Every structure is written in structure tokens, then in C-alpha cells.
Amino acid sequence: MRFYFAWNFTNVCYILQGYDNMENVNISKVEFSTSIKDLSQGWNIKTNQWLKICFFDKLKHKNIFFASLMTFLVSALWHGINVGYLIMFLSFGISIPIVKCVNKLILSRVNFVFPVLSRIQMMFFVAYFSSPFFILNLKNTLRVWEGVYFYGHLYCLFCGLLFLISKRLS
């Protein structure tokens, strides 16, 4: 909530000074995203545009996953040298193909509830993988994740295996 307030207050200040197109958060895109890509495009918009132009676009010709992971790594370092930032941003980077796979293989088969299920999936991902950002301590992060039985990691492992099995079958 405090981020939303700060960014919207800043946007109002820009508008009052005659600047436009300075929006830095799209709340509906963040809260109702169905993918990590959508979520990151709605959050800290100007910084994400800069990261995309300066890092992702320069690396994507090699490999999209690698480019994405390196961009998330730069974002983690941009926030500061802390294991919590590194864990969160790299977790999101690693999760992108997993969320894509689940959306494609499973959730898209139930068209009428796809948006609802994919949003619920994103809520669980964000809740789970954002905790290191706020805790900023590896030991305490692991304690929190242990308290919820590492559901984010287990989900990623399960979906990764599902993805590999589906690739072999097709």
C-alpha cells in the first residue's frame, strides 16, 4: 500500500508540474496479473522500462530465459547488496517459464476459469517469493518458507517436472 501511495502521489506531483506519462505503477495490472511478466510490467514501470532497454533487449538474442534472469539479477543489485533481494528477484526470474507452462498446459484447458486460476496462482507466487525482500535475512526467510512447507518451491518442482514430461510426450 505504501508503494502505491508513494508512486501515485509522485505522479500527481508530476501532473501538477505539467508532465504526463510518468505513471510508475498500474495497480490493476499488478493486482490482477496472470503472469510474472504482466506483474513486473505494472510495478515500478519506469525502472522496468529502463531494465528492459538496457539489459533484457541486449541479451535476448542469446536466450530469453538467460536475458530475463540477468535482468532480474541487475534489479536485485539495483535494490542493494542483500541476499533477500537476490533470492526474491532470481526466484521470480526462474518462475517465469514455470508460470507460462502451467498457464499453457493446465489452466488454459479450463477456459471459463483460466483468469481466476491464473490470478490465484500469481497471488501465491507473489506472497511466497516476495517474503525475502521484506525479511532481508536468509535464516528468517527459510524459517518462514519452512512454516508454509516450502509450497512455492514444491509447486515449481512439480510444474517443472510436468513441463519436462509433457515435452517428452509431444
What does this structure look like?
The chain is mainly alpha-helical. The protein has one domain (35-169). Helix content is 77%, strand content 0%. The mean pLDDT is 91. It is a multi-pass membrane protein. Keywords: Acyltransferase, Membrane, Transferase, Transmembrane, Transmembrane helix.
Layout of secondary structure:
Elements: H1 2-16, H2 27-31, H3 36-42, H4 45-59, H5 64-79, H6 83-105, H7 114-129, H8 131-135, H9 138-147, H10 151-169
Helix pairs in contact: 4-5, 5-6, 6-7, 6-10
Which structural traits does this protein have?
globular; 77% helix; mainly alpha; 170 residues
Summary of the model, kept short:
This is Lysophospholipid acyltransferase. Helix content is 77%, strand content 0%.
Mean pLDDT: 91
Rg over CA atoms, rounded to whole Å, is 17 Å
- Helices and strands, in order, run as HHHHHHHHHH
Portion of residues in beta strands equals: under 5%
Helical amount: over 70%
The figure for the number of domains is 1
How far apart the termini lie comes to 44 Å
Number of helices: 10
Which segments are poorly predicted (pLDDT under 50) over 5 or more consecutive residues?
none
Number of strands: 0
Backbone structural class: mainly alpha
| Largest pleated sheet | none
GO molecular function, one term: acyltransferase activity
Main location: membrane
Membrane topology: Multi-pass membrane protein
Keywords: Acyltransferase, Membrane, Transferase, Transmembrane, Transmembrane helix
